[in-house]
Amino acid sequence: MRAGEVQVLKEQSDVVEEVVDEVVHAYHSGFNKAIQNYSQILRLFSESAESVAVLKVDLAEAKKVLGARNKQLHQLWYRSVTLRHIISLLDQIEGIAKVPDRIEQLIAEKQLYAAVQLHVQSTLMLEREGLQTVGVLQDVRSELTKLKGVLFYKVLEDLHAHLYNKGEYSIASSRLSERDDEVPTIAAVAFSINNSQPFSRRTRLLKVDNQIGAYGDGSYRPSSVDGSSSFDGRDEDGALEIHDEATLDEHTAAIRVNGGDSTPKDVKIVSPQIPTWLSCSTPDEFVEAMRKSDAPLSVKYSQTMVECLCMLGKVAAAGAMICQRLRPTIHDIITAKIKGHAERANYSRVGIGQAMQAGTTGLRYLKGQLESFQLSKQKRQNGISLAGMLLAVSPVSPVMAPMGTAQAAAKELLNSILDTVVRIFENHVLVGELLESKSSQQVDMNTPKSMAEINWNPDAEASRDTGGYSIGFTLTVLQSECQQLICEIMRATPEAASADAAVQTARLAKKGPSKGKRDGSEDGLTFAFRLTDATISIPNQGADLIRQGWSRRGPNVLQEGYGTAAVLSEQGIYLAASVYRPVLQFTDKVASMLPQKYSQLGNDGLLAFVENFVKDHFLPTMFVDYRKGVQQAISSPAAFRPRAHAAATYTQSIEKGRPVLQGLLAIDFLAKEVLGWAQAMPKFASDLVKYVQTFLERTYERCRTSYMEAVLEKQSYMLIGRHDVENLMGLDPASTCLPNSLRPPNMENTATDAEGVEIELEISDLLINLRPIKQENLIHDDNKLILLASLSDSLEYVADSIERLGKACARAANQVEENNNQKNPHHARMSSAPPKDLVSFAEEYRKLAIDCLKVLRVEMQLETIFHLQEMTNREYLEDQDAEEPDDFIISLTAQITRRDEQMAPFVAGIRRSYIFGGICSVAASASIKALADMKSINLFGVQQICRNSIALEQALAAISSIGDTVQLRLDRVRTYYELLNMPFEALLAFIIEHEHLFTAAEYGSLLKVQVPGRDIPADAQDRVTQILSH
Predict the structure, then answer these.
(1) What is the pLDDT of residue 527?
(2) What is the pTM of this model?
(3) Concatenated DSSP letters for 511-566?
């Protein structure tokens, strides 16, 4: 037992020893190495301590040696410092000496910003202590002074060209290669560095003009500058400050690169995002901002040029010179634009024959103007030229009409010029804001006080800092030039004062109408300019400006004409209509560009001038001219004379020969022409509509006079004026043939067929009771009846035309009102009230047309009664059968046929049906009622009356527009008289079967009249009454 335990313990001891052996074997070598390293470290420390002790002894000995010669060493150190400073100055002098050549090279490469950078840096270095007294640098300093002037005028030259879209990086220049039918747009994003005020929020959508005209000589010619120019807005010092020596070393290095030898190591690596004109510039805050900016190249270039002016301290000088050159440059641009239009127009006419050119004006007018009025290129079948007749009363020539070629040409020309001016003003807004921003950062202004005394800018301080240049001044000059252009187009002569509108109207009214006036011009028409701009005084700069190529011509120098006559075939006051819309659009675009502080400038200026001119001169002139035209149209002997050779059949189309009276046709033409002016000038539409209402009122009175001359003291006219007759005629089913009118609800025709027959009988009875009819109470002159028929159709035509115009005006007014809700209120147009007045005038014309038709209808009915009343004056006891109707029937039928043939060309078929449709019912009633006045009649007499009825039926049936009612009505007459041939018992049987065919009185008349061979019992009347009473 114990032996086993000993054995186990021994085994365990062996295991432990093996583990310990492994551990000792694994870590023994590392432990030994660590002990060796530690011993080595101790040895090195001991050696270092010994070396330090030796070094201390050596340093002590050196101190003793050096202390013996301290003063001599101090002199050597001071000399070495001086030599190093001299070497540095010589290096700087060497670099500065190369700067003028480098600047000229940069100018030649159009790296103006880099040249300005180098000039400013070099100027600052020359002001450093130590370089001011170096004599060799005096020539360099003089060269830099000259180069400053050269740089200034070169920058100003590029900025000036860029302002007017003539520069290399202008919007228009960058788009010349695009197709003509494309209209590229860019959004010009305002950019500012350290700007004290934000730029305006405005829409910068620029429509690029694909046609770049030749401009006047606006170049600058840089030459030597003596440095004494009073344009210097500030001294050179202060433009760029260097605060520490490290920064100076950086600038020195930059100068060495830009002004030293052109070695490969000096070439700078430029980011492709940096604009080309900044590729040689030294990186700074502005260059970095340009690299990161997303603005278009044109905007970046403007910012670069302004930055150059700011660095040169020439903001005020640049502003003053831009102001001085603004007006003549704009004048040259407008003139060149007009010349370009004239050249293109002349080129387009190459190869066109003289014969075609001779007819161009008339054809364009007939297609453009008369076609819009549905009156184009047609002649009446009687050979009268419709266009010639209408043009005879129009106060304007065809090309000057609202849609004439002169109006279109003037509008196209002005749109093109104003678009160019808008793009130029876009550039001026950007540059003006940049200059104002930069000028606020400069101090120590040297600008003469005379430049600051300019009152067109709401911010006078900003205007003074920019040498008088501001957005307000630019807008004033641009609008003034555009105003002079408009004056030339309208042949208006600006004078010191404007004539009062009332005096002007009175003066024009005294003038006799002359065809020479039809170009729309008025000799002696004057008005005052409402835009003025200040004269900029720049003393002692004449020679300097002339040397630099800047004209001394000031803003107020009278300009020569623009040459619009080469483009416009005619000029005159009536072109104000084509001027209004382009000016309105121009004002809207300008207002969207203006910064907030200039927003009030958009409420006045060119638009106000045009509106005042239209209100004070154009509208009064137009009113006088058209009033004369209206007077001529309605007072002419042929104005209300139906044409003798009208078309054989009536037609609704004016072009195909609808015989509208010339006076009314001319009035309709003039009304449409005036409303054409209203469409061109929406703001004055209400005034022009009032003119039309005045003309229509005068014409209505003239039509009423003609109507009264035809119907005065005639029985038919007096009858339709009676209230009972008017009500019955309104209820008559035949009234549906009348033109549409605004009748009261109780006047609307809602009667059934039976009720319609009753109404016809009631009207017939009313007219028959007027017997005897006298001939002097009838219209026996057929010419008057034809006039009434033609007047009715003409009035209806004009009423329909006026109604369409009223609805069109209402739609236009609603559209304008919707647009006004979305825009500024200063473009308010007309209200919706005037169109309602036009509709009311249309109703008045239509009512008079209806009265003409009613008179004709009643006149024919009275004429029928006049002839048929002869039946009561004779006895129908014929001894033989007559072969012809009675003479009065022959006369009546001949009269009906003749009048129908005469009226057929002047009224529509449905209107003829109304005029002649009342004859049959009256004739039937009169024929039946005539039996009551007869004492006796025989068989031949009955046949005679039936023959009369047949003849009348045939005459009425020849009128195609009358329906089957004629036969029904007159068959009833023949049936009635044929009852006289029946025996009494047969008559009773007929009455029993047809008791409602005739009235009791009519059946009674059959019994009362004596018929040879017929026996009537004594109680015959009682028996008939008994039958009818059931």
Answers:
(1) 38
(2) 0.68
(3) SPP-GGGGGS--TT-EEE-----PPPP-TT-HHHHHHTT-----TTSPP----GGG
